[in-house]
Amino acid sequence: MITNLINEKLICLDLQATTKDAVFREMIDLLAAQGKIKDKQLFLQDIQAREALGNTGFEEGVALPHAKSAAVIEPAVVIGISRKGIEYGAEDGKPSKLFFMIASPAGGADHHITVLAELSSKLIEPGFFDAIMATKSSRDALTLLTAKAEPVAAVTGESKGFLIGVTGCPTGIAHTYLAAEALEKAAKELGYKIKVETNGSIGVKNAPTAEEIARADAIIVGSDKQVDMHRFAGKKVIKTGVKAPIKDAKGLISQALSAAPYKPEGNAASAEGSKSGQTRSDLYRFLMNGVSHMIPFVVTGGLLIALSLAIGGDPTPGGMAIPEGSMWNSVLNVGVVAFKLMIPILAGYIAYAIGDRPALAPGFIGGWIANDGSFYGASAGTGFIGAIVAGLLVGYFVRWVATRDYNKLLRPLVPILIAPLSGTLFIAAIFIFIIGAPIAGLMTGMTNMLVSMSGGSLVLLGIVIGGMAGFDMGGPVNKVAFLFSVGMIASGQTQFMGAMACAIPVAPLGMGLATFLGRKMDLFDEDEIEAGKAAGAMGLVGISEGAIPFAAQDPLAVIPANMLGSIVAAVMAFVFGVTNSVAHGGPIVALLGAMNKPLLALAAMAAGAITTAVVAITLKKIKAAKAPVANAA
């Protein structure tokens, strides 16, 4: 494939660009000059959009920008070399010098994936990087790229056995195939046959059959994605991150061959425990699995709601309203569906990370019940905090159920009936009969507390209302403060809603600002940076749920930051005498004239957002500074 996509005129051995975008433009010019693309600007936008999903700068000076685009006339690969290197955001922090830009037509075959897989064999060849950097002409570089690799000398004699590999990275691109190539090469050198399953962006490919798993001598799982581990029960298994096979595939194979038989029960910690030197806890990884799947729902739903309110909404005494039957009302309803799903998605995929597929259905159901207070007589559900609780309880319960010693006749029913059904009944009973009543009572108690404080110190009330608004971002505590403030509008006391309206957008605006300020500090990953942009947009129209992914991922840093920022905004609103006559919050309400002092209200929101951003960054930096100490210990 790669030999059909490259020619000498698509190779530049001395890029003049000094920035990432400039590299893109210079290489795109080469594609356009060769008639490979018809719209340079559109292709640049598609390259940048792909980059926003995850940085394509990898270790040791190599970068692989790529995109499927309607601007591409025919698939092609352009190669560029920067002698000085540029700051690309590579994973190892080093400048990138060797660039492979892959252009693939939209709607066509997945050329970029095929080419990445083929390039993998080149990139892991010893000395390849130095050799291509030393080439003096495009012809020499092309010869080096298209040269067939010398066959790996296998150990003479019969095969020593059969191995299975599994590779996968979060974006499903380069590392997936680099790791697979490294395992295949190492296995051949050691005298073993191997079959490697790739969990890439085009799906699972080359999955082993049950028969192949049964005869495998060992299994090497190098993946940062969720992998179905139950199928490997009883086999020798080593599990690590996707980068480990690239660095030492032979060592991993040796470890796998001497590993103890894999047991699903109690083994999740060791199976998930070492991701390329990371020291994050199992609990953190379980939460991250839920958060990563939830983010698209938060972003999609939040932006649809924000768009519909910003364009089609009008302030009314009952809040921001969109005319029934209008197009924007339909857009709003679609966004609401995404928001309803995000909490069950969070719970479901936390459960899945712990208990695998049998835990998925009860995790979703548990998340839905947790978020719907009608199941247990509460005026609001438990929000993302309840989803986390539901996901963890379901995951561990189902894992326990699925690993009991069942009769042979019952074993096939465990993953599809026994574990999901028992898990669903378990979590439903927990929320409806055990957790539900205290939650309803707590919400009633908080409402009574706010009522009793309404005639007292406004500063103290601002601290309480602001803290509640920032605590769970649309969850039950936030809802109590919101409903109390709405209720006070009817009695003519609109200052309470003024404070609440200023506090509501602080969490999403603050986290959006934090990701912008902290993007160069290695405090936020690519998913968080993208979610931060969406959170900022949601904050502008008063959607506090935009900050949920950050709070779910790092609650000890984010929740205190959100609360402090919201307290600052609420107290300032009370001090300034800000009032609000509609049941909604955020800058949009001030700009549409529902607040008596819009400029002061915006100042209070800005001060709160800055406070949240500064506190969140500070706490994350403290946490990051402690991590090396903990690792050394």
From TrEMBL:
PTS EIIC type-2 domain segment(s): 283-619
Is this entry keyworded Membrane?
yes
PTS EIIA type-2 domain location is 4-148
Q: Where in the cell is it found?
A: Cell inner membrane; Cytoplasm
Task: Describe its membrane topology.
Answer: Multi-pass membrane protein
**InterPro entries for the chain:** Bacterial_PTS_Sugar_Transport, PTrfase/Anion_transptr, PTS_EIIA_type-2_dom, PTS_EIIB-like_sf, PTS_EIIB_2, PTS_EIIB_2/3, PTS_EIIC, PTS_EIIC_2
Kindly list the biological process annotations in GO that this record carries: phosphoenolpyruvate-dependent sugar phosphotransferase system
Instruction: List keywords of the entry alphabetically.
Output: Cell membrane, Kinase, Membrane, Phosphoprotein, Phosphotransferase system, Sugar transport, Transferase, Transmembrane, Transmembrane helix, Transport
For this protein, the record's Gene3D superfamilies field holds: 3.40.50.2300, Mannitol-specific EII, Chain A
Which reaction(s) does its UniProt entry say it catalyses? D-fructose(out) + N(pros)-phospho-L-histidyl-[protein] = D-fructose 1-phosphate(in) + L-histidyl-[protein]
All residue ranges annotated as the PTS EIIB type-2 domain in the record: 163-258
Q: What is the protein's major site of localization?
A: membrane
Q: What is this protein called?
A: protein-N(pi)-phosphohistidine--D-fructose phosphotransferase
- Source organism per entry reads Tolumonas osonensis
